[in-house]
Amino acid sequence: MKFEIITIFPDIFTSYFNESIISRARKKGLIKINIHNLRDFADDKHRTVDDGPYGGGPGMVMMAEPIYKAIKALSKSKFQNPNFKSNPKSKNPKTKIILFSTRGKKFDQKMAQKFSKLDKLIMICGRYEGVDERVAQYIADEEISVGDYILTGGEIPAMIVIDAVSRFIPGVLGKHESLEEIKGSYPVYTRPESIIINKKKRTVPKVLLSGNHKKIKEWRKKLWQK
Q1: In angstroms, rounded to a whole number, what is the distance separating the alpha carbons of residues 79 and 181?
Q2: Which region among 44-58, 87-101, 160-174 has the lowest average model confidence (pLDDT)?
Q3: Are residues 111 and 218 in the same domain?
Q4: Same domain for 73 and 154?
Q5: Pairing mode, strands 95-106 and 120-124
Q6: Do 163 and 133 lie in a common domain?
Q7: Which end of the chain has a smaller Cβ tally under 10 Å, C or N?
Q8: In terms of domains, do 149 and 200 share one?
Q9: What is the DSSP code (8-state) at residue 107?
Q10: What does pTM read for this prediction?
Q11: Looking at residues 53-74, what average pLDDT do you find?
Q12: Which domain holds residue 208?
């Protein structure tokens, strides 16, 4: 699966994607992550990608045209109308273009699983006061929010989406059973059996030390969270 990220801060992603499970998945060729600097699609020598809002107001707004050019370069779909007179959204059912927005659909596990069936996910990372509304209306297939809070940009949401979606791709986690959707989510413990925390002895639940796998399974099921 390919993840294409459009951003004005490409270096933000380097450390996270070069570590741990995501890094291993990239090396194995299970996923591909391509990061594109939006300024490369600007049409002036200053590489301008933002401007003041029509109607006045604070802040700067990211321009639609550089984003449109970036999407055209990354998508196999042929966008027919550069003047935004019709809807040029992705025509390929295995490709999805998403824009991160506080007004978007809430990203969740079901959405992550759905996205994992795609061949390509193109993500537009907004910044500043927002993104020209024509991107949401005529370019992106969907607007996505990662939670009921405001972030300074779409870069962290892009990392969240890639991490969550990648877990569903066979081979990324090593074992299919590692998915919490399958094994459930419950309290876990490891050695030592007893430790002192705040001057009190804290021990592992006896059932986990019993060796009785039936009882352990029942205990975990009682505390199961999905």
Answers
A1: 38
A2: 87-101
A3: no
A4: yes
A5: parallel
A6: yes
A7: C
A8: no
A9: P
A10: 0.86
A11: 94
A12: 184-222
Same domain? For 42 and 137 the reply is yes
| Residue-level pLDDT at 174 | 72
pLDDT > 90 fraction of the chain, expressed in percent and rounded: 78
State the CB neighbour count (10 A cutoff) for residue 194: 9
Number of domains in the chain: 2
Comparing CA positions, the residue from 4, 6, 140 lying closest to residue 66 is: 6
Q: Which sign does the torsion angle of CA 141, 58, 146, 161 carry?
A: positive
Query: CATH no. for residue 90?
Result: 3.40.1280.10
- In this structure, the dihedral spanned by the alpha carbons of residues 217, 218, 224 and 226, taken in order and rounded to 10 degrees, is 70
Cβ-based neighbours of 31, under 8 Å, separated by 6 or more: 1, 2, 3, 22, 25, 162, 166, 169, 172
93: confidence class by pLDDT, cuts 50, 70, 90? confident
Same-domain pairing of 193 and 171:
no
Cα-based distances in Å from 47 to 8, 27, 28, 41, 183: 10, 33, 35, 8, 49
135 and 188 together in one domain: no
Whether the pLDDT of residue 81 is over 70: the answer is no
The rounded distance, in Å, linking the Cα atoms of 113 and 119 is 13
Task: Judge whether residue 78 has pLDDT over 80.
Answer: no
Distance CA 67, CA 51 (A): 13
Would you state the pLDDT for residue 153?
96
